[in-house]
Design goal:
The structure holds two protein chains of two kinds. By secondary structure, chain A is of the alpha/beta class. Helices cover 34% and strands 23% of the residues of chain A. In chain A, strands 4-3-2-1-11-12 form a six-stranded mixed sheet. In chain A, strands 5-6-7-8-10-9 form a six-stranded mixed sheet, with no helix packed on it. In chain A, strands 13, 14, 15 and 16 form a four-stranded parallel sheet that branches. The two termini of chain B are 26 Å apart. Classes of the chains: A alpha/beta, B alpha+beta.
């Protein structure tokens, strides 16, 4: 009875620039993506898999630099497993392009499957790849699997990249794969890529997700699937975590610094803050004093503890209190300015936000002056 | 404060002392003609109060009248602080100052400081540029030029005003805190944008630059990526084209077409060859026809020739007959003459012989006499003489070498003539039977051989005769020549007395040797005969012989011969003459005979030639006819012409065949095929080169990761844009805050300056009804609002500006007056730009103000101010 054990991975997106991040974060994230290759190799050793199939988007774009390519191939060369790399939509195959280069440079244990033809992983296990030749493929790339002939009794393992067609959907998205493709093409297992999180679709189809998370969409750390396929049986799928960084998307209601403190503690309980990237939106209405205290806390302290913080305070509405305004001045020109800004902030129109910010700034400046003169 | 009098001397144009008195506390108008120095009055006042007496500045030097080295001096009497004061100041030379009141007098610096305190101003720089230090009087003593400018008051005035205002409206600003915060905001703003033009700077400018660079980078990289993708597409395209091209290069259909063309070419070329052959055959046939035509033509010619030859032969036969007759006549004539010559010669020879014999006898007689005479002298020389005599005999020879040569020539002539004769005669050997006589031409002869030259009849007894006819024409002449030659030879032999030339030669030789020996003997005799003069015998043998000869002659010679030598000589001469004439006649006949014979020979030759020509012509015709007779030749020609027509037909056919395959066109098509193939080859090379080049580009650019670079550049651009947005927003916030603070400050100022505004408004209301004044923080008039229109001061007309400047000064003066400050308003030639209505309003206002303070108006326009009720002072 034919049996094979393999590691299913996808969506490495190596060479993703993370250009909006500061340089140190950028290089840490890039390094982590490369490290994921080592983790996958370790996972293969750990579960005794001889093959690692990658269901597309090995690289973030269709023409990454040689540095990325060399780093990738270097790490894969160190592994004992056989790597089966398939072009996805990000790194789709094209004549004389990236994949030609990789094939020319690849070590012996790295195989590029950029043509829709079955290849033998072992005598009794065949890989049926559906590589993408365009960034946007309208047709179902897995359709060809139906007609791909393999030796009788051999395992048929599909490898594809794209979204699963939802029943009843309009079908407008690109390279849609039918959810019952495994059944239609008599596949023992269909290894999918494109969705960056782990997702099982029926018994014989799964998205492995990316080995290292790259966006504020999937809370879990990245991972891969150790799949044991035996003819006749439902494949046994085990998820192995390989990622380093958590990418958390949060929306915190705050009324003052205390709320924020509580949220941060909860976050820390869930994992290391220095391996956490946080995109947080603060919601709430505060006075000027609280607002300044919240910003001090988050920018002065929390931000430094996190690997990366993406702060959205557009929904943190400021309602200056009488005390706030009094702190600026009770009479004279400063009081008059504060009153003007407050009136502006409470009004509507594009200048309201500007006035609110200006008022906050005036408040901060007044505090700073008083602090300075107090000293 | 009230000015009471002013006195000046040595001050600018006022060299002589000038004193102006009687200023009152109200409105004073000082009227003076233009250029008399009214502005100098104001300058002198300022000098007296604000310029230190000890100063030597440019300003102070300008007080000196031009060209004079004197001491400018000013004196002022005034009322201030409830006291009357006199002030005297002298500059440059022996400078001094004196300030005196009822309370006392002060001089020098003390006086200056007392003055500052009294009138509320600071020590200045004495250069006239220190208006800031001059306090209220500096503001209120308005010179002509500055009257126009709507300026803020000087700091001294400002501070005075502020203290007045603060006491009036209370503390309304944030003071130091406001200023500090505002300054911080300004600083923060200035870090991002320039205050006035709002240009980005500092961090914001840097961020904007970064964004611009990132955008440029992104565009550049996108271009590079597009180039790379284009290269990929080009490479793909080039590979596809190469594949197509290679298919074209090995296209079997094209190869088949070309093969077919090569076949066609071969066929075409052989057709061409056939055409050439047919042309050659036709040409050959044509030649044959021409040859046959030639043969017929030649036959015609031969026949014509035959005809002509026959005619010629007949003519020549006739001519020869005539020549023959002439020749025969000449022969008989010559024969006759020759017989005559023969006879004449024999006669001459007989005469010669007789003469010679006679002479010989005479000589012998002479010689014997001679011997007889010399015998006596021969004793001693007997042997010699005998010898000499013998030798002389021997040496005696009647002829010499020349005669012998002549004889030899004659002999040779004979031989030659005989040879010719023998060649031309018919020799008939006759051997008659015994008893048979032989008659030749009827003449009995006894010879066994006869040379026959002409037709000769030989009769042998009664047996009949034989006529021998030798060839005509030559025989007789030859015979004659031979006979002549033989005659001449025989005559010569006879003359020389020899039988043959050989004998002659021998005799001559013998005579020669004897002569040579005789010479020797004669010499011996000569030497042996010394001569004997006494006997009349000369030396030598001859002399001796001559001497001895008569002696011998007397003994040997008995009788002298009786021959008549002269007669003999004359006969001899006659015979010779006869012979010569006969010879001449015979020669002429011979010549005639020769000529006749020549003509005969020529005729015979021509006849012979004609005969030969006739024979040759006959032969020619025979030869011609050997190839066939005329009918055959004509038939051959017709046959050949038919063949030629056939060849021409074949030629036309070959020509048609050759034209149906256009060889050059086929060659061109083959060339085109080959050129196409060559081009395809070149194109393939070019494509391969291009593919290699594109592969290099793809490999080179691909390794740099153009897409990755673009992705990174896009994100960098986004990040830069986000930073620009954040900083821009911060700048906007700061700008908004800054403007709000400015607005708040302006509002506060308005509140604060309300008393000033209010006082000024009293005047302005009368000048510009409904207008509102706004002062800035430095108390300068900033703007005028009237009829809902906001006007900046600088935009107002000059007249209005001047009027407002005076009115605001009045307002401040009022405030200062209330504060108890010394106030005096001096206007230097004001309202130049005012119309009459405004001027009236302004003079009304000044009139009212003069009720609170002293107002001095300096003007040259007495008419303009005539309506004003004021204290007038005329300068003269």
């Amino acid at each position: 009875m034919a049996t094979i054990k393999l590691i299913h991975s996808a969506d490495w997106q190596l060479g993703k620039p993370f250009g909006r991040m500061p340089p140190d974060v950028r290089s840490a994230l890039a390094e982590a993506r490369l490290d994921a290759i080592d983790r996958l190799a370790e996972a293969a050793v750990g579960c005794g898999a001889a093959h690692i199939v990658v269901a597309g988007d090995v690289f973030d774009n269709v023409e990454p630099g040689d540095r990325i390519v060399q780093q990738t191939l270097g790490r894969m060369a160190r592994a004992t497993a056989q790597w089966w790399l398939m072009p996805g939509n990000h790194d789709h195959a094209r004549a004389h392009g990236l994949w030609s280069r990789i094939r020319a440079q690849a070590p012996l244990n790295v195989h590029v499957v950029d043509t829709p033809e079955p290849v033998a992983l072992a005598d009794d296990a065949w890989l049926l790849p559906a590589p993408l030749e365009y960034r946007r493929t309208i047709a179902d790339p897995t359709a060809a699997m139906v007609d791909m002939a393999t030796p009788p009794e051999a395992l048929r393992i599909g490898l594809a990249h794209g979204a699963i067609k939802e029943f009843g959907s309009s079908g407008e998205s690109t390279n849609i794969i039918p959810p019952d493709r495994a059944g239609l093409a008599a596949l023992d297992y269909l290894a999918l890529g494109d969705w960056h999180g782990f997702l099982k679709v029926g018994d014989r189809t799964a998205y492995s997700g990316t080995p290292e998370t790259d966006r504020f969409k999937h809370e879990d750390k990245g991972g891969c699937l150790a799949v044991t396929i035996r003819s006749g049986d439902v494949p046994v799928i085990e998820r192995i975590e390989t990622g380093r960084y958590r990418w958390l998307l949060r929306q915190w209601p705050v009324t003052g610094p205390a709320d924020l403190e509580a949220e941060m503690q909860r976050l820390e309980a869930g994992g290391r803050l220095d391996e956490t990237l946080l995109s947080v939106r603060l919601d709430g209405i505060t006075g000027l004093a609280d607002r300044v205290a919240i910003m001090d806390a988050i920018e002065g302290r929390f931000a430094h503890r996190l690997r990366y913080l993406d702060l959205d305070i557009d929904n943190l509405v400021v309602r200056p209190t009488a005390e706030d305004v009094a702190l600026i001045d009770v009479q004279g020109a400063l009081a008059a300015a504060a009153a003007l800004l407050r009136a502006g902030a409470e009004g509507s129109g594009p200048d309201a936000a500007l006035s609110a910010s200006a008022l906050e700034r005036l408040y901060v400046e007044a505090l700073r002056f008083d602090g300075g003169s107090a000293q | 404060m009230i000015l009471e009098s002013l006195e000046l001397a040595n001050f600018r144009k006022f060299r002589d002392p000038l004193r102006i008195e009687g200023f009152t506390g109200g409105l004073n108008i000082v009227v003076e003609p233009n250029e008399t120095g009214k502005s100098t009055l104001l300058e002198a006042l300022r000098a007296a109060f604000f310029v230190r007496h000890s100063a030597k500045t440019e300003l102070v030097r300008s007080f000196l009248p031009i060209g004079d080295d004197v001491a400018p001096r000013v004196g002022v009497a005034f009322h201030a602080g409830g006291k009357a004061w006199t002030l005297e100041k002298q500059f440059m030379r022996a400078p001094y100052v004196r300030l005196a009141s009822a309370a006392g007098r002060q001089e020098s610096d003390a006086a200056e400081e007392a003055l500052q305190t009294l009138l509320g101003f600071d020590r200045g720089n004495n250069r006239g540029t220190d208006l800031e230090t001059r306090g209220p009087l500096g503001m209120l003593w308005v010179e002509q030029a500055s009257a126009l400018a709507v300026e803020g008051p000087n700091p001294i005035v400002r501070n005075s005003v502020r203290s007045v205002l603060e006491s009036e409206v209370g503390a309304v600003t944030g003071g130091r805190r406001f200023d500090a915060i505002r300054a911080n905001v300004e600083t923060a703003y200035a870090a991002l944008r320039t205050g006035r033009t709002r240009q980005s700077r500092g961090e914001l400018a840097a961020a904007e630059n970064r964004l611009a660079e990132a955008t440029a980078d992104r565009e550049r990289l996108e271009t590079a990526l597009r180039g790379y993708e284009q290269a990929l597409a080009d490479l793909d395209n080039a590979r596809a084209r190469l594949k197509l091209l290679e298919r074209e290069i090995v296209d079997p259909e094209a190869a088949e077409q070309r093969r077919q063309l090569v076949e066609d070419l071969k066929v075409g070329e052989s057709a061409q060859l056939r055409l050439s052959a047919a042309e050659a055959q036709h040409g050959q046939s044509d030649e044959q026809v021409k040859a046959a035509e030639g043969r017929v033509e030649r036959l015609d010619v031969a026949e014509r020739r035959m005809e002509e030859a026959r005619t010629g032969f007949d003519e020549k036969t006739k001519v020869r007959g005539e020549a023959k007759a002439a020749a025969d006549a000449a022969v008989s004539e010559e024969k006759k003459l020759r017989s005559k010559v023969d006879a004449a010669r024999k006669e001459r020879e007989r005469c010669e012989k007789m003469l010679a014999e006679a002479r010989s006898r005479a000589d012998a007689f002479a010689r014997a006499a001679g011997r007889k005479r010399v015998i006596a002298a021969l004793d001693a020389l007997t042997d010699l003489e005998a010898r000499a005599e013998s030798l002389a005999s021997d040496a005696q020879c009647p002829f010499d070498e020349d005669d012998l040569g002549e004889l030899s020539c004659l002999e040779r002539d004979v031989l030659e003539a005989r040879a010719r004769f023998e060649a031309g005669t018919v020799k008939v050997d006759v051997e008659p039977a015994p008893g048979i006589g032989v008659l030749v031409d009827g003449v009995d002869v006894d010879v066994d051989s006869i040379d026959i030259l002409g037709p000769t009849r030989i009769t042998l007894g009664a047996a009949g005769s034989i006529l021998v006819r030798p060839p005509e024409g030559t025989g007789r002449a030859i015979e004659a020549e031979l006979a002549v030659a033989e005659e001449l030879f025989a005559a010569k032999l006879r003359a020389l007395d020899v039988t043959s030339h050989a004998e002659g030669a021998r005799r001559l030789e013998r005579a020669g040797s004897a002569a040579r020996e005789l010479e020797t003997v004669d010499k011996q005799i000569e030497t042996a005969c010394p001569g004997d003069p006494s006997l009349g015998l000369a030396p030598g043998a001859d002399a001796l012989r001559a001497f001895a000869a008569p002696l011998s002659a007397e003994e040997a010679m008995l009788t002298a011969p009786g021959d008549d030598l002269d007669a003999l000589g004359k006969s001899m001469d006659d015979a010779r003459g006869e012979e010569a004439a006969d010879v001449t006649r015979h020669d002429l006949a011979r010549i005639d005979l020769g000529k006749a014979e020549q003509a005969l020979a020529a005729a015979a030759a021509e006849l012979s030639l004609a005969d030969a020509e006739a024979k040759a012509a006959g032969k020619h015709i025979d030869d011609m006819l050997a190839a066939g007779d005329r009918e055959k030749l004509a038939a051959d020609l017709a046959e050949l012409q038919r063949v030629r027509a056939a060849k021409l037909e074949a030629l036309e056919a070959a020509r048609a065949g050759a034209t149906s395959y256009d060889v050059p066109a086929i060659r061109r098509r083959i060339d085109n095929f080959d050129r196409g193939a060559t081009r395809a080859g070149e194109e393939r090379i070019e494509l391969n080169r291009r593919i290699a080049s594109l592969e290099t580009i793809v490999l080179r650019d691909g390794t740099m990761g153009p897409a990755g670079q673009v992705a990174a550049a896009r994100e960098e651009e986004d990040a830069a844009a986000a930073l620009v947005a954040r900083l821009g927003r911060e700048a906007d916030v700061l700008e908004h805050l800054r403007e709000t603070l400015a607005a708040a400050a302006a509002e506060a100022s308005r509140t604060f300056l309300a008393p000033v505004t209010r006082r000024a408004a009293r005047y302005v209301e009368r000048l510009l009804p409904g207008a509102e004044l706004a002062f800035d923080e430095d108390l300068a008039l900033a703007s005028v609002d009237r009829a809902g229109l906001h006007e900046s001061c600088a935009d107002l007309s000059r007249g209005t500006q001047e009027q407002l400047a005076i009115l605001t000064r009045l307002a401040f003066a009022d405030l200062l007056l209330e504060d108890g400050a010394p106030v005096s308003l001096i206007l230097d030639d004001p309202f130049v730009y005012s119309d009459d209505t405004r001027l009236e309003t302004m003079t009304d206002i000044l009139k009212e103000a003069s009720e609170r303070m002293q107002v001095i108006l300096l003007t040259c326009r007495s008419k303009a101010f005539r309506h004003v009720d004021a204290h007038r002072i005329e300068l003269r």
